[in-house]
Amino acid sequence: MIDLSHLSLKNRSGIVLVMILGVSILLTIMTIGIINSNANQIISGRRQIDRVKAEQYAKGIMWINGTQLGKGGAAFAPATTSLNGKTFTPALTSNGTLPSNANIQRYDISITY
Prior knowledge:
Blueprint: H1 9-70, E1 81-83, E2 86-97, E3 105-112
Antiparallel strand pairs: 1-2, 2-3
């Protein structure tokens, strides 16, 4: 602890003012850092939600396509959809046949959002 007993009241007031300003600046910097961290977590959370939505949409397309092809029908042509204001655009592409069975087509599903 710093001994300020030898300083007059007037000089102590200046030191207290500088200390209060220093603490205020430090708290402001910490507050900005916390707000920035929270904003980054919100953005990251929203991206993760979009990834999960895209994954579930792709799984649905996969199951519909499997059912269509299993019944002898044509491959399913997925449509662009909007979920909570975000557009999800699927792309279903044929990727050859299975190495073990040339009668079974492989398909890749990608979702852009």
